[in-house]
Amino acid sequence: MNINEIQDGYVIDHIHAGRAMRIYRHLELDKLDCSVAIIENAKSNRMGRKDIIKIDELIPLNIEVISSIDSGATVNTIKDGVLIKKQRLTVPERVVNVLKCKNPRCITQTEQEIQHIFVLADREKATYRCYYCDTLHKPED
Amino acid sequence: MMKHMLDIIDWTPEELDALMDTADDIIAHPGDYADAMRRKKLATLFYEPSTRTRLSFEAAMLELGGHVIGFADAAASSASKGESVADTVRVVGCYADIIAMRHPKEGAPTVAASFSPVPIINAGDGGHHHPTQTLADLLTIRREKGRMNQLVIGLCGDLQFGRTVHSLMNAMARYKSIRFVLISPTELRIPEYLREGMKQLGVPFTEVEKLEDVIGTLDILYMTRVQRERFFNEADYVRLKDSYILTPDKLRPARRDLTVMHPLPRVNEISVAVDSDPRACYFKQVLYGKHMRQALILKLMEAAQ
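Above: the input entities. Below: the structure tokens describing the complete assembly.
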């Protein structure tokens, strides 16, 4: 598979295999005009298998979205064909309007224009708790 | 910052102790509190019917000299026209000084608290929390046992779906030398997160199937209802159903100072023949619930001013 080198844009690397599409959806990359490449199940010495996302434009990137889905990912920023920044992510304490509660009895399912707030419950397991109903949200959910 | 009552563990044991002190004082000197909430209004926003909880709040406010406004089910409110919880509390906050909210959706009172100009009391949000029931339970324990530590607490019945059981365990686990005896069919044991939570806190507990095997070891027996439809199979239901019904016979090996509690309503899980036993405290628990709601209204109004 051949994907062109990026001149100005991002390479989101070391994504756990299977999570790229979630990051794609939450970052709303389908709404961009530029090229976006998703590589799933790429071989990785460190991870066995991993996903990669390449974005061919320096858009405003919401890092919090990525870190709440996969804090192990790295975000590489490329300008004029040169890697100018390699960013490792940290697990945020609180994420707003990134995750959605899956509990059908949660007030967020019916209340209009409410902020979807999740609070970090377990740093090791990157598990979040719905601020309203306490339902746990695991990375694989 | 405005103080609310959303979940019992948002309040420290010291704060809960202070509430119980106030409730004790209200019981001892009710006249001193007869005008404490004069010209103040409590709004009871009950999006689903719960007559006893609503009446308890109303009685609490009236005994403090205050007034009550509100609705008793969602059909009678603007929610039936599609108004959000956020908007409702902003509107009601213009009329009332404090709000007690019952809602079928979990976390609705938390949303209300984010927008309300007045204190919010969670009067039950789905299967999530029901902190004022736990306040009633705590005062019952303190008044009946005279202490909040060194207690063996038996919880019997549906421990998986019973939110009152979960809240009570979380609240009591913060006191010293508490041990839980969890009596339920295997299918209805406490949820995994609660079991893990107790282990992390280092609170000892045992899980058994039959009440008869452990009743003699208990200081407190907290009964809840086991519904037939919760069982996975009929054979288990038939085998165990009698085990979760408290009768005078079953009470015989129990301690003379046992305290029998139940969040009510009961169906048949406590025989009416037990009602006359001095160890039966479930109707006192109802009364203590009203006094704790009085104490809570006073505390929240004091913090809001």
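Note for the figure: The CA atoms of residues 246 and 270 of chain B lie 5 Å apart.
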